[in-house]
């Protein structure tokens, strides 16, 4: 089959003949100059277009192991190109739920034209299925232009595109969070060279507005963190000089709900690095982990959450432990330190005491950050975030006193502050919540003391547990009553006969329903 180009090339003699006829003195005399001029220039254009050989550059999405920066830059460039000006004949439009504007994108095999100086450039997105059934589809761009412009395109045009991409990445970057999809790994055996390509990251934009300033944390800790990140970002020469790889390890530890994940998002927003969230519970072998590490990009944060759980994985099928903390240490000491630049690795744990001491040795994790229960400083930040309180409030002293005596996480406080009602009502609710926690703490301590005492023959543990259960029931009933009454916390008094009240309102609801039913029946009767 003839290709379109070949067909046009074969038509060239006919065009030549046509132009000769048109330009013969006899014909020339009879047609206006403008028309003959137009015909000649059109002919030259056709000739140049179909007879000049051109070059095609292939830009693959991935290199041997990592993604190809020129591909990413080209993708971003084409995206702006077709959004702003040149629309191809066909293009995609999409809009996700929370997006404010729709997104325009290119479709594979559809040509997008760009101009650089006097050079016309044609872009096409291509895809290709690889030889192995489950291996991911290969994507690449084809960039075609006339022969003779190779230097301009490779040295100037593509360099410009990459520079612009890097600048945008640094200044205005939308941070992405990548999670690793490891599908089909067990179903097919890949040749060694293709194993790394099977690491399939999917991403979403990190729409977490967390900033270090907005976190409920000790102010000195925040300053230390920001300084440390700044020094790390600007430390290329220093790292080179001392012969250390340009990486930084952070260990975030503390109880659940103290903001470890929020801090990671805030750090990513601060340094504008993408996050690679590594889920170690997926039963990875050390070899898998090696592939995953190699597939991440520079200027990124690799996150390993709940690192204390690493030793607990037992692969039932393979009947052996897969990934271990010592595997992680080997990776960190060897592979991690030699792959890529400007990398941050963050480990989180709720149980620092359960970590392999080798992981805590100086030099492994450069910075240890303790995420603690909420302090008054932290609370004020949360109150400013959630309730816009910038100055003092009459309940602050009471709250401060309560916070000194009870362990409450910023997550718990945040939940209370999210409740509906004005500032006074919400803070009143928080006071009640903290008082309840204080009471629970006292009771738990009492119980602990009783259980610890040598002379525990007389301790009525069962009775005490029953009492606690009753208290819980009462609280649940109070919540139910509150729901029925739809009133604020402030009016639920401790002396209220909650059970009686619930009963009363249930009865009232029943009566209301019955009355509504009677009205309905009467209407029906009248209609009939
Ligand atoms: N220090 C904090 N400052 C501000 N908000 C916080 C803080 N800690 C927790 N929160 C709030 O609580 C929610 C849950 O916190 P987060 O997931 O960051 O805690 P975590 O320590 O990572 O918990 P886990 O160990 O269970 O993963 C956050 O979305 C945020 O709204």
UniProtKB/TrEMBL annotation:
Matching entries from InterPro entries are given as: AAA+_ATPase (IPR003593), AAA_N_dom (IPR025753), At3g28540-like_C (IPR058017), ATPase_AAA_core (IPR003959), ATPase_AAA_CS (IPR003960), Mitochondrial_chaperone_BCS1 (IPR050747), P-loop_NTPase (IPR027417)
Entry's Gene Ontology BP terms: response to stress
Q: Which keywords belong to this entry?
A: ATP-binding, Hydrolase, Magnesium, Nucleotide-binding
Domain AAA+ ATPase span(s) in chain numbering? 246-375
**One Pfam family in the UniProt entry:** AAA
Similarity section: Belongs to the AAA ATPase family. BCS1 subfamily.
What is the name of the protein in this document?
AAA+ ATPase domain-containing protein
Q: Which organism is it from?
A: Quercus rubra (Northern red oak)
